[in-house]
Design a protein that fits this description.
about 280 residues; mainly beta; single chain; globular
């Protein structure tokens, strides 16, 4: 299993080269674009730190025809922080932001690689924030992706099914307390069904995680693996006002953990006020 992630990345790179070559040879569409943003934080107290940041995300999208697509993006940033010109520290980083291949047809799609997987109707308090960490205050809605394979099928009545398998994501994501065992795959699925003037969804996810035993009742070992199972229900309706809810529960199957259940729930509503303005010339 140790070399599986490396082989998957090699396969993905090979696929990208094939798609790019196919696209060039058959004159398909290749788009390049980028997103640049700057951040400036100024404190009136001269003893407090000031902050300056610059971020650039170049993107490439290739449509190779026959339902094949490639998307890649790099996230690079440089930050300066300090309370004087002589006391500034800097931080910079460049990393892969997105890297996936997609094969799609009118009613289904497969997507393989580093991608964003998110769902659920909530905006602020999101129990279904399982695979992303989108900050609602962030106008760019940036978040790290996950490595995996995603399949989605869309029925003609607007119902849809999601299935996914993740591997190689050894850092915590979403609401996770403990990282996933990097040698174990994660898998799950989701069903969304139309209901009245909205939709309802059910989601499940399974993974093996590593638990560092410093919080454990049983200190017989330094680290242990345990299974986590997640279930969730959510819904959203348009009934003059928008109504939604999300309920999620997690169960950790390990006696060494002092707490074995976690539940989260949120309910919300929104309404758009019409604004009419008469102009007289």
């Amino acid at each position: 299993m140790k070399g599986l992630m490396g082989k998957m990345k090699q396969f993905l790179v090979a696929g990208i080269l094939i798609v790019s070559f196919y696209s060039t040879g058959y004159c398909q569409q290749v788009d390049f674009k980028g997103q640049m943003s700057a951040t400036l934080v100024v404190n009136q107290d001269r003893r407090a730190d000031q902050f300056v940041g610059l971020r650039y995300i170049p993107e490439m999208f290739v449509s190779a025809g026959a339902g094949f697509y490639f998307y890649g993006a790099v996230n690079g940033y440089k930050n300066y922080q300090g309370n004087s010109l002589a006391n500034f520290s800097s931080e910079e980083r460049i990393k892969i932001y997105r890297l996936w291949l997609r094969f799609s047809r009118p009613q289904y799609e497969f997507r393989l690689g580093l991608q964003k997987i998110n769902f659920g109707p909530a905006f602020l308090l999101r129990p279904l924030m399982w695979f992303d960490r989108i900050d609602p205050r962030d106008p760019l809605q940036l978040t790290d992706g996950v490595w995996g394979l995603l399949f989605r099928y869309y029925f003609l009545n607007n119902a849809n099914i999601w299935l996914w398998a993740l591997y190689g994501n050894d850092e915590t994501k979403g609401w996770e307390f403990f990282p996933t065992n990097k040698h174990e795959p994660e898998y799950g699925g989701r069903v969304q069904l139309p209901l009245f003037r909205g939709e309802i969804g059910a989601t499940v996810h399974f993974r093996k995680a590593n638990f560092v035993n410093e919080f454990s009742i049983d200190n017989s070992s330094q680290k242990t693996d345990f299974s986590e199972t997640r279930f969730a229900f959510d819904g959203k309706w348009d009934a003059e006002i928008g109504l939604w809810f999300e309920v999620a529960a997690s169960h950790w199957d390990d006696k060494a953990i002092p707490f074995n259940y976690q539940t989260m729930a949120t309910i919300g509503a929104d309404y758009t006020f019409p604004m009419e303005r008469d102009c007289i010339f």
